[in-house]
Amino acid sequence: MAVTKLFGAAIKRREDPRLITGRGNFTDHIRLPGTLVMAIKRSPHAHARIVRIDTSKARAMRGVVAVYTGQDLVDKLAPVPCAWLIPDSDLKLTPYRAVAVDKVRYVGDAVAVVVAEDRYVAQDAVEAIDVEYEVLPAVVDQEKAMEPGAPQLYDEIPNNLAFHWKLHVGDFDAVWNEAEVRLSRRLINHRLIPTAMEPRGALAAYNPGSGELTIWCTSQNPHVHRLLLSAVTGLPETRIRVIATDVGGGFGSKIPMYAGEMIAAAISRDLGRPIKWIETRQENYVATIHGRDHIQYVDIAARRDGTITGVRVRAYANMGAYLSTAAPGVPTWLFGLMLQGAYAIPVIHCDVYGVLTNTTPTDAYRGAGRPEATYLLERMIDILARELGMDPAEIRRKNFIPKDRFPYTTPTGLQYDSGDYEATLNRALELVDYANLRRQQAELRQQGRYIGIGFSTYVEVCGLAPSQAAGAMGFQGGLWESATVRVHPTGKVTVFTGSNPHGQGEETTFAQLVADELGVPFEDVEIIHGDTEMVPFGMGTYGSRSTAVGGAALVAACRKVKEKAQRIAAHLLEVSPEDLAFENGRFFVKGAPDRGMTFQEVALQAYLAWKLPRDIEPGLEATHFWDPVNNTFPFGCHICVVEVDPETGKVDFLKYVAVDDVGNVINPMIVDGQVHGGIAQGLAQAVYEYAAYDANGQLLSASLMDYAIPKASMLPSFTVDRTVTPTPVNPMGVKGAGETGTIASTPAVVNAVIDALAPFGIEHIDMPLTPERIWRAVRERSS
Amino acid sequence: MQITVTVNGVTYTHDVEPRLLLVHYLRDVLNLTGTHIGCDTSQCGACTVLLNGKAVKSCTLFAVQADGAEITTIEGLARDGQLHPVQEGFWEKHGLQCGYCTPGMIMTAVDFLQRNPNPTEEEIRHAIEGNLCRCTGYQNIVRAIQYAAEKMRSGS
Amino acid sequence: MKISGSYTIRAGRDAVFARLTDPQAIASCLPGVEDLNQVAPDQYEMAMTVAIGPVKGTFTGKVQLADINPPESYRMAIEGQGKPGFARGNGIVQLRAIDDQTTEIVYEGDVELGGPFAGVAQRMLGGVAKRMIEQFFSCIERQMGASA
């Protein structure tokens, strides 16, 4: 591990100066002369046959350059491929075209496209297009969609069942029959809308002369988008450049390949002019992926002493109207593999049904599968604790995988890298002053006030790896990351990383790593990301992988550079490389510190090449593709304290303590920020956010007026703390911090509210725990 | 229609369509892209600018309504290379991640601190209710504004 | 969304029924109706402006009366499409004579919105629909009062 001066320092972010002065490089800021504006006509029906599209009025409008229907684009764009083909699940692929040709399958499906001189004209023209539909019955609920007689989205996919994935480890029937305690519950993990503050968009510029397409777009993984754009447009990768320098948040929603980006590319090629498409927020809400949406049937087998002996889950995952890019992997591998959580549960039995419905497609949203697994387990363990009259902290302690069993092989086949789960629980109990809090709770109940304490002791999986495992899981890509470290003759360093941070701050943390590794000033390190023409290749930023995988690639590349520099320095100093030491950016002869060269001096010599060892090439740069040997497994304990007013159902947050262990921490300020934001999103699922559809497939929470992303006044301050258990998986010992907060906080908050309502005999309420739902539950029990 | 506005100290005269929104005027006509657009229902506040010193969501006004007004956008906040204390606070306290809501958030805070130089945490949280941030959970935004408040009080 | 309610008019049932199913009355009393033309027996085309919350739009569509059973009941279906999306309504209207000069109108139906309109306006739909229905009946009542 590199313990030097910048690793661990709360350095201010270098991305900030441009962002706080309004000089970011977001997609919609890029201007090219001659650009036309594109707008998409979307279906207002959840399920309908397109009878006729009349574009004549739109075409006749002044300023309208072209109008395309699905039929017009059939030869210009191939159907969008799905990139996660999970094996042994009877997976049925959904042929999905960017613009619908015969049938629309969700509100928001594209039916026609307008290209015009300005955005106002484009919008007018969209409204002037007349589409005649034959409306078909729609189905929204995943359980109903599987029933006989339900509306069928695709003729070739019976019962709307896209896949059925199984993971059966151990004999669940046996542990169920032997169990002293058996609990069965139905839990709903409802649908959410990611809501990155920057809507999606693209500026596609095809150069008819060179045959090259340059596309600026809102992407978490530009190289993946280049590959997919190549697949749908037929242009070779060598002729496509994807640029996504500043991206205004993603949370998973900017991973997939979508209609808008590829239509812009195809039309730019068709017209030979730059095409800009920026979605509106309302478009974003219907046509950018949603997240979660599980109905789960859970059985827990346990002994009277609180030991859990088995978990069985049957989950119905609502996939929406087609399978989005990574969607099949989310409710299967990313969910099922984590069903033992932080506990030594030996038997896991999981069946997941991926169901197509007339709704916006779902895909990876912050946490992606792990929140659904963690919520289920953390909720059920609380229900079990109450059943057994045990303290929720103690039942967790009882079931924890003990720290001396790491690395721990889970029944689902993962190898948890490192952990000390009890340490985070103990620290969190101390921070909330648990014993006192319980006493206070009892006293307040006497006065008719209801406070609740909720736990979540989670473990999650980050930096999915290695690529071989990805292949075995059917992921159509590798899960490595690349980095190129280029040292210039002056000793300044440019780093090209395949990670594509969009808020996570790697321009800063990666520079910290490089400065430490090469002993160069922080200011001398430039981090380049988000441009396929500059970065060799990259798998992108998601799944909390950038630091653990992208950072490791970077460190490995730095070490290659340093090794070469050391050989050059040794040659120039006329000693053998082993005789050199490296400190504070300088090579020197061991025992003779005066005889040495700075890293910058070596860099210059590497380029002058006047006196290099015979077997060494001039120049000083290295590339490394890092394919980790394993995933990393951050863990922790979150405790939420709330007061619930049973008269109004209102929840007040009194305290929120998060003790996370994300391994070593490069920049604590940035990690704290990631945790804060993560908690906010998970907490919002527990009590505020809900993507609601009516029975006809109309999204009711289709704008920021109705979808309750939290405002500042709706959130408490969080107390965040850490324990540090490094991982052996990468040279820095870091695990990943992007999703811990989201995964942990949802059950902590729900458990707190349910704990507060215990005197009313309330054992569970499905999320979001809005005042109305709480009030109704209290009413039901009181009457 | 012809309008004359002063933006960040520079006076412009343009012929604009009556339906052109102020935010589009700033971004598309003046090329001041620091003012962002995050929604279409005036909830998110990413487009907040100062109009005659007061924070307004520039998506709720037509450009013609700003005729004769003095506007400050995020690009005009720093003076002579010196960051405004609110900008400084956001940098110091890690008040931003992706940076998309940041310009609007900063402009709202600038207006708020003019009216309330010594706010409580609760007052700050209330003041920025019209600006949505999806990354930070607001905690460090609150700290950034507290930092700025303190700096402005001691500096002036 | 289900909508139901009742309205009492001080007029005899036969007269109320006749007025309610009279295209002229519908055209003049349905709020926001700009144009109503008969295209078939009991079927009309219309243009109608509706505002719900922040969204306002003009819809063009059809009004269809069915199962006309004077003076007791009839069905009414409205279907419109416009810039902000589409709206559909379908309901049954029943008339009960309370006495010779008083009629109670009981209505029950389903209203559905689609497209951007649905996303923004659904929350306020119940209140707006009810208000529009009441405006319609009170207008009918006023007209009958004036003609009586």
From TrEMBL, chain A:
Domain Aldehyde oxidase/xanthine dehydrogenase a/b hammerhead, first and last residues per copy: 21-137
Keywords of the record: Molybdenum, Oxidoreductase
GO molecular function list: iron ion binding; oxidoreductase activity
Pfam entry (one): MoCoBD_1
Listed InterPro entries: Ald_Oxase/Xan_DH_a/b (IPR000674), Ald_Oxase/Xan_DH_a/b_sf (IPR036856), Ald_Oxase/xanthine_DH-like (IPR016208), AldOxase/xan_DH_MoCoBD1 (IPR008274), AldOxase/xan_DH_MoCoBD2 (IPR046867), AldOxase/xan_DH_Mopterin-bd_sf (IPR037165)
SMART domains attached to this UniProt entry: Ald_Xan_dh_C
The name this protein goes by in its record: Xanthine dehydrogenase family protein molybdopterin-binding subunit
UniProtKB/TrEMBL annotation, chain B:
GO MF annotation: an example: metal ion binding
One Pfam family named in its UniProt record: Fer2
Keywords: 2Fe-2S, Iron, Iron-sulfur, Metal-binding, Oxidoreductase
PROSITE patterns recorded: 2FE2S_FER_2 (PS51085)
UniProt superkingdom: Bacteria
Cross-referenced InterPro entries: 2Fe-2S-bd, 2Fe-2S-bd_dom_sf, 2Fe-2S_ferredoxin-like_sf, 2Fe-2S_ferredoxin-type, Beta-grasp_dom_sf, Diverse_Oxidoreductases
Gene3D superfamilies: 3.10.20.30, [2Fe-2S]-binding domain
Protein name: (2Fe-2S)-binding protein
Organism name: Thermomicrobium roseum
